Amino acid sequence: TNLTPNQNQASSKADLDAYFALPPSVIKLREEMLKDYTCPISPPSDSIEAQPLTKLEYYSLQHYIIWRTTNSTVATYKGYRAVIVQATNTEILSLYKVVKLALDKTHLFPIVVDMCPKSCIAYTGDYAHLNCCPYIRGGVLCKTPRYRQAEKNISHAQFKTLPILGTICRC
User: What is the DSSP letter of 87?
Assistant: First the structure.
């Protein structure tokens, strides 16, 4: 077809708009989540200042990083910790304390959300109060229970997310 440059540009814009159009469910979710939020013109001035590490914190975090990156067991963490303390007379934090230290220093606190074990939904927002999955797949209602042990609220499945703000503040 012979289109003028303006017609061609309009056609391309319409194609792009159609290509990037969000489904109504996503638009509704975005409106519910953002409500009347508007992005501030400038970032907040109360930024998080990094604090220097003590010798104990530094060596404990080094030990923890090696332990995590090698996918070692808890017994391995404890064993090497004992060897380091004995050989160098340098204290190393317990696994519980070093994990808490890492979270405190990074401000990256994970948010844990229950989910359907079949990955249908996350129990958040409108679904937060539900005890079984309402998702319909192929005309069949999932109805998988949220909890393994309802009286103790032990969920079948969970996922973790890291809030974006903590990640941005660390950059």
Answer: H
Residue 136 main-chain phi, psi, to 5 deg: -110, 120
Structural tokens at position 119: 């990955």
Q: Are 77 and 70 in contact (CB under 8 A)?
A: no
Tokens of 30: 């975005």
23 Ramachandran zone, left/alpha/beta (phi>0; psi -120 to 50): beta
Residue 152 one-letter amino acid: K
pLDDT in tens, 73-131: 999 999 999 999 999 999 999 999 999 999 888 878 888 999 999 999 999 988 999 99
Kindly report the number of other CB atoms within 10 A of residue 85's CB atom. Answer: 12
Burial classification of residue 157, based on how many CB atoms lie within 10 Å of its CB (0-12 exposed, 13-18 middle, 19 or more buried): middle
Beta bridge partners of 113: 159
Show me where the domains of the chain are located: 1-35, 55-106, 108-171
CB distance 47 to 169 below 8 Å: yes
Are 155 and 113 a contacting pair, CB within 8 Å?
no
Matching residue, tokens 């939020």: 37
Nearest to 103 by CA among 54, 57, 150, 154: 57
Bridge partners of 155, per DSSP, are 147
Q: Measured between alpha carbons, how far is 25 from 23 in angstroms, rounded to an integer? A: 5
Does the pTM surpass 0.85? The reply is no
